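Incident review: delayed structure delivery

Summary: a single-chain prediction request sat in the queue longer than the usual turnaround. Root cause was a stuck worker, restarted by the on-call engineer. No data loss occurred. The affected request and its eventual output are reproduced below so the record is complete for anyone auditing the incident later.

Affected input:
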Amino acid sequence: MHTVRSILERKPRGEVVSIAEDATVLDASKVMNEHRIGALVVTRDDKVVGIFTERDVLNRVVAMQKIPASVTVGDVMTAPVAVCSPDTSRAECRTVMRGKRIRHLPVVEDDALIGMISIGDLTEDAEAEQDETIRYLYEYMVGEWAPQSL
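Output delivered after worker restart:
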């Protein structure tokens, strides 16, 4: 069974980008642009308290005609936030994401933020599993792997 742990192991090492709830929406947007990401985990005292996404900017700031430099992330973040653990299965994550119509899940272990997965990560992991299965079946039937002939 593929778990969040196996997905995190495949991802490049790096810290999860987070922001304090008292940061402005303008500052959060700059951080998201700088890192080329669509979501930030919102923390208070190193605990996950919410998530701030591009959708929050559009729906709760732009559409409401609020000034990004005057609004805090805590005022417009999505909370409470759905999280998962490293031992959560890929299928469970997909079910939560589909049910809540979200694209990101912070990964928490012992109340500490250790990663973030996206719907893209789940799709990539499923594709990797399928590729592995295809390769195994091809080698079983033919005897050796010859990707150039496919």
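Verification: The beta strands are 18-20, 39-44, 47-53, 104-109, 112-118.
Action items: add queue-age alerting; document worker restart procedure.
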